[in-house]
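lol so apparently i was supposed to do this last week
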Amino acid sequence: MFVFKKIVALQKYLNNSDSPQSIGFIPTMGALHKGHLSLIEKAKEQNNIIVVSIFVNPTQFDNQEDLVKYPRTEENDLKLLESIGCDVVFTPSSEEIYGTNLASTSFNFDGLEHQMEGKFRDGHFDGVGTIVQRLFEIVKPTNAYFGEKDFQQLQIIKKMVEKNNIPVNIVGCEIYREEDGLAMSSRNTRLTQEYRQAAPFIYKTLKKAKKKFKNKSAKKVVKWVKKKFKKHPLLKLEYFEIADEKTLQSIKKKEKGNAYRGFIAVFAGEIRLIDNIAL
Ligand code: AMP
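anyway here it is w/ adenosine monophosphate bound
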């Protein structure tokens, strides 16, 4: 496994490989867990060279404390990546990516960016668009893998690729969960024991909401979820929305032929957790 910090060295390595390459790329912010590894496993089935980037992207954080406290476990990440057969890891510094201009570009994702996470995390998707576009320019992957855990992000990346004709195939990957249902996330390691024990309530509630959505209106299901969280002693609901998978707009009425998802953001103390479920 090769680890590169510099763009020039990474590109030299990728350009020098003599056999025709299909590059599978998985951008991450590190603190790797089995959710990340499931993306890599999928990429291994479909490509002959696997590139993983580890970069905690400052411009996508709306909350400076979250950025400072974001878990960083590079030594362990590299061990994990080596053990599952990753070929190349890219671990650039902030200067390598942004130079002296630590700022994001402003994107138009046809309104996807104004829904849900976009309402609560100012500038987040401009930061995501900026880093992913930059990484695509550097790595030039054949396929790039993104988790449905961040479903809105996945749809936004697909939109960015489509609108800018970026020659990469975006592959969405299922949410990988702990045994108790909590969606795996690097931020889970920051939960206190009390909040960690409470957190599976999120997915349990999503599953019940899915059941209810079969014969109840979206409005009734949303109301029910809000009530459940109001009664919860620890977890604070930021939003729960039922939205169309493509437009990400909250729905008022179910329509045949459309696919819907329930999207949720919850505070477990100061840790913000997100999850979603296909309805
Ligand atoms: P992050 O390191 O949090 O930026 O995540 C890197 C990639 O891994 C993103 O595409 C995430 O959506 C994906 N990912 C994170 N957690 C999970 C999970 N539990 N299941 C599937 N994909 C995930």
